[in-house]
Amino acid sequence: xxxxxxxVSKNNPFASxxxxxxCENQQEMKPLVPGRTIAAAAVPEGDSCEFGSAxxxxxxxxxxxxxxxxxxxxxxxxxxxxxxxxxxxxKYKSVVNGFKVTLAEDGVRGLGxxxxxxxxxxxxxxxxxxxxxxxxxxxxxxIIGEENSYLYRTWLYLAASASAEFFADIGLSPMEAAKVxxxxxxxxxxxxxxxxxxxxxxxxxxxxxxxxxxxWMRQIPxxxxxxxCFERTVELLYAHVVPKPRADCTKGEQLIVTFAAGYIAGxxxxxxxxxxxxxxxxxxxxxxxxAMDVAxxxxxxxxxxxxxxxxxxxxxxxxxLVMRRCLYWQLVVT
Length: 334
Known about the structure:
Layout: H1 2-11, H2 54-74, H3 76-87, H4 95-106, H5 115-144, H6 146-151, H7 153-184, H8 192-203, H9 206-209, H10 212-240, H11 251-285, H12 291-302, H13 307-333
Main location: mitochondrion
Keywords: Membrane, Mitochondrion, Mitochondrion inner membrane, Repeat, Transit peptide, Transmembrane, Transmembrane helix, Transport
Organism: Cloeon dipterum
């Protein structure tokens, strides 16, 4: 079964962002879809590893760990202010005001609250998100066939990303709960090693997974938008903006395209994920609450974007997504 899975992965049309598919006998090759050229999924020999191999999936997972863990940890101060605006907008009136209040109350060290659960949680999420995304993309491509994988590639991106994020959030949920509790609950402990046993003592295991469903509601649409929008934006940029084929671009030029596509995708991700993001923040702040309780309390307009929340959420989403994509590209593609 594993050999079959690897064989399918080697022949699927998404193995590489930089080369065109070629059979052993190039002259006898006929277009799979008349008038269209399918992108192959193999990097130049010697540059990386064979697509669909165990090493390939391991590198994707490692790239996800490093890119997600590093980038999310790097923007903890901005994320902290965003969460506080969501749970207490009366006190934290804007992003700038949020930084001023936090610095006045907690000092510079206060801006780093929640860095440990952020790093460990998003590293686990990155492992599953990027590693399993490639696994599910290969798996679904093998089910629907090579031609349909190209024709309906957007749906393939959406299905693979949703499946990967489902498992990624199970790994993220306990650390996300601890992070939000540390960042938004006045008088609560300030370190991960203190927070975990205290949360378990007060609420049991539900403390770590009561936010899982709203986390799915936030992250699955976010990830679906991120991967699908990113992949299609890259295609459009190479087709209509970049003046030469992707295969002729240097790695530096490809990185610029990756940066631009990540920025565009980040805007849409922030808008899509905001309502559930607010629920997650409120849910993990309030002891004994449920997702339905929080949603009823906030109401529909309470979950809509305010200017201040939009600024914070866009900042977090754009910076993290662009940094993550560029770092992941550098780690895996190069």
